[in-house]
Write a structure and sequence with these properties.
Distance between the termini: 12 Å
Order of helices and strands: EEEEEHEEEEHEEHHEEEHHEE
Strand content: 25-35%
Number of strands: 16
Structural class: alpha+beta
Shape: globular
Helix content: 25-40%
Radius of gyration: 18 Å
Largest sheet: 7 strands, antiparallel
CATH class of the largest domain: Alpha Beta
CATH architecture of the largest domain: 2-Layer Sandwich
Length: 256
């Protein structure tokens, strides 16, 4: 498929026009950013891993009825997605105290929360994506009350599934970020999962050692970022050993 006009470029992905008006091509870059892009690097292979991991997660979520924008993977770095109107909110689900929540509430990092906590942040890079309440969302018209209900319900269902999925391969799902979009179909509008699900958007710790297998390795200068992402992919069955010590992306069972 030939590359079309660029529609949007973000910190980790680029969106291009798709083959039809209701579709887009999402390209995964190797760029890594943190602290609102104050820290930047290019990590060879990160985009390939995130593309494949996100495809796997979206596909599995679709199997349990979670609506999402993913259509199929096109190649190592691109996937075909449904065109949606992005809701300007980040929905964060937290199972364990870490990151900004631990600092904000004076909790010890690693402390398990009494229950999953859903938080909203306003998507505005220049403001640092501030934490907001449902009252802000309603007052400023960022989303309707039914849309907020849909996002919370879908986020918690996603959390339940992903906690079990990762626990099955020895990984603790500490927290993760989701984005949602409005899908316009004839006279109806649906709230569906958008963006990506990958180690860029999740905190993933080894259940035995608490080793970080996510973007915190970049944020905290721990090194081995792509190696950690590769470990996640291996445990999920996306990577396999070629027999000579090298990792090979296993495309069996995925969308071609």
């Amino acid at each position: 498929m030939s590359r079309r006009r660029m529609v949007y470029e973000g910190k980790a992905k680029i969106l291009y026009e798709g083959p039809e008006p209701h579709l887009l091509v999402q390209y995964f870059k190797d760029d890594a950013t943190a602290f609102n892009a104050e820290k930047k690097a290019v990590l060879d292979g990160k985009g390939v891993l995130n593309n494949r991991i996100s495809e796997y997660m979206m596909t599995r979520l679709g199997e349990i009825g979670i609506p999402h924008h993913f259509v199929k993977r096109l190649n190592m770095r691109e996937q075909l997605i449904k065109k949606v109107e992005i809701i300007p909110l980040e929905v964060i689900v937290r199972n364990v105290a870490a990151g900004t929540m631990a600092k904000r509430l004076g909790l010890e990092e690693g402390e398990r929360l009494p229950r999953a906590v859903v938080e909203f942040c306003y998507k505005k890079d220049e403001l640092g994506d501030p934490l907001v309440a449902e009252e802000h969302i309603s007052a400023f018209g960022w989303a309707t009350p039914p849309e907020v209900d849909d996002m919370v319900s879908l986020a918690l269902r996603t959390n339940d599934f992903m906690c079990g999925l990762f626990a099955g391969v020895g990984i603790r799902l500490v927290d993760f970020k989701l984005e949602f979009g409005r899908l316009f179909e004839n006279e109806t509008v649906r709230t569906i999962l958008a963006d990506e699900i990958s180690p860029d958007s999740c905190r993933l710790w080894d259940m035995d050692t608490n080793k970080k297998l996510d973007k915190d390795r970049f944020r905290r200068d721990l090194g081995g970022v792509t190696e950690a992402y590769s470990e996640v992919a291996r445990r999920l069955g996306i990577l396999r050993d070629s027999g000579d010590g090298a990792d090979v992306v296993d495309f069996k069972g995925g969308s071609k």
